[in-house]
Amino acid sequence: MTAATVSPPLKPSRNLDPKTEPINGPKGVLLSNGRQLVSMRIAICQALCEEMQRDDAIFIMGEEVAQYQGAYKVTKGLLDQFGPERVIDTPITESGFTGLAVGAAMTGLRPVIEYMSWNFSLVAFDQIISNASKMSYMTGGMFSVPLVMRGPNGAGPRVSSQHSHAVEALFSHFPGLIVVSPSTPYDAKGLMKTALRQNNPVCFLENEMIYGLEQEIPVEDYQIPFGKGDIKRAGGDCTVVAVSRSVHWSLEAAEQLAKDGIECEVVDPRTVKPLDIDLIAASVRKTNRCVVVEECYQTGGVGAEIAARLQDICFDDLDAPVGRVTTTENPMPYAANLENETLPKPHRIVAAVKKACYR
Amino acid sequence: MAVSSTAPTIDRVAIRAQMGKERLLRIYQQMLLVRRFEERAAIQYQARKILGFLHLYIGQEAVAGGFYDHLEGGKDYSVTSYRCHAQALFLGLDPKELMAELFGKITGNVRGKGGSMHFFSKEKGYLGGHGIVGGQIPVGTGAAFTAKYRKTGGVSVTFLGDGAVPQGTFHESLNMASLWNLPAIYVIENNMYGMGTACTRAVAVQDMAVAKAPGYNMKAWTIRDGLDLFECWAVAKEVVAYARTGKPALVEAKTYRYRGHSVSDAGQYRSKEELERYQQLDPIERVKKDLIEAGWLTDAGAEQIDEQVQTRVREAVQFADESPEPPLDELFKDVYAK
Fold this sequence. Notes:
With 359 residues, chain A is an alpha/beta fold.
């Protein structure tokens, strides 16, 4: 392993008994080794809960976050614990509550707003871009917007065109925003804590399809800094940079490729902005090959940015063009077979890595 | 017509007595400062010392003048559109830093990063000038949310133009403010035109506050003559007191801008006669007349005040002109907050 930071191994998903074991809310399953087993949604909920206990400026606002306990149950239990002044159901009014959160952040609070999915953030695009992202700069540093915008991003299960956007590249385009895309419970909790203790607007992009993913994580408080990637699998033959859910597809592809004697190094940048290009480049200097896997589109995607930066800083280390496995350039179709071909699934990753390895 | 024939006759003498000499003189000086500052800015624009947009408030001074007298800087919040110079001056910001901002200098209000549309003051709770029509309305709502969350007793005043009324943010904000009983005041400054489009061609109702407020279970006020400081001040007093009880309020002030939407606007969408009719109602001239009538100001005293104000503005121009541009290492500063 070459990585400075290696997150704890992932657990295969279990069939939990909701009567005896928590599947959501802020409580994990305490283990005899002094650690706790948590799902992605519990990890995020824990971070929110612990930070709300620490800092009374933090409040949560969004559609169905309080009485309904969150459309995906990420905020379960928080209303009971913190009351309706701090856990607030909103009307369906994304532009309105995003702008409200910007104003609250400018006047000393630390709002967390949930988009039921990032698809709906597009309704609030003006508030995110023209207000949140520019406020620090256009006020000469007078005001800041400590705002966490969070919710599931990327394709859900068979939800077709208007509910399958992946917005990492879109929001990364604008200076002033931080874009976080965790792939594991450990990363999600540590990154959420960092998000809640800094002063910039953060797009915290979760993924519905991995909310149930479990991992052993520390019980103690920890943070993960922005701009520090993580090696999710070590390997010497090809670097695979993967974002969010794509990390898991890439790990699956890596296992298949290992059978053919190709060892992939799966690098998870964890935050798309700031991007840990140094970690990616260090891996590429070792493997001399790179494939980027993401749920955004290829045109102007995260892969486009990484490929451009790699040719800038380690052009001579590359033995093959940088490959890109992205969502194909069509709106998400409903049909199962078409959806499967649209997403950057393992079979496409395997093909792209083999191409980069001239195999 | 900004001034409705059905406007109730307000008792100007009674309101004047309520305000008192010192306060009325102070507001008069502030209004005059806003006027002279912007007149001078327009000249500097012609001289190409100021570029980009320059949206002038000239003609509308009584509206902000009436409201700011009831607000406490530091406790109350305010926010407005890109027509944001007057608010900053009524809050007492130094004309020097404001003019320097227009000149794009490092000594400017926001270090030369914002220009004409983006004046701010953290100390005074001024959440700025905003360049997207209607974009500031939920921001002002958020400031009211903070006042309620922190139980400060403060209120938030959001100024918006008639052109912002059809935007979604207006309706979304009113709905949230009413649902959650936020101390939020929304002041529609109806200057009759959203850029070159008469509000009658853009908004389906005439008396905007009165028509819209019931849909959000809110109380409405209409300032029939928004060029009259006394009416603006009296309504503002009532509205601010109402909002301090934890209720949102919607106000329409029917007013008029004498200059174009921005300085590049030739104003061909309105007649010369219409403009002249409103110029007869000049809000600053009317306050001056009232002050003289009350025996609180003489012609000579008025001239002296004007000279003092002109001097301040000239000094501001000189300060702006002589200030250095931002050093190039400012380019990436404050993209992210510390």
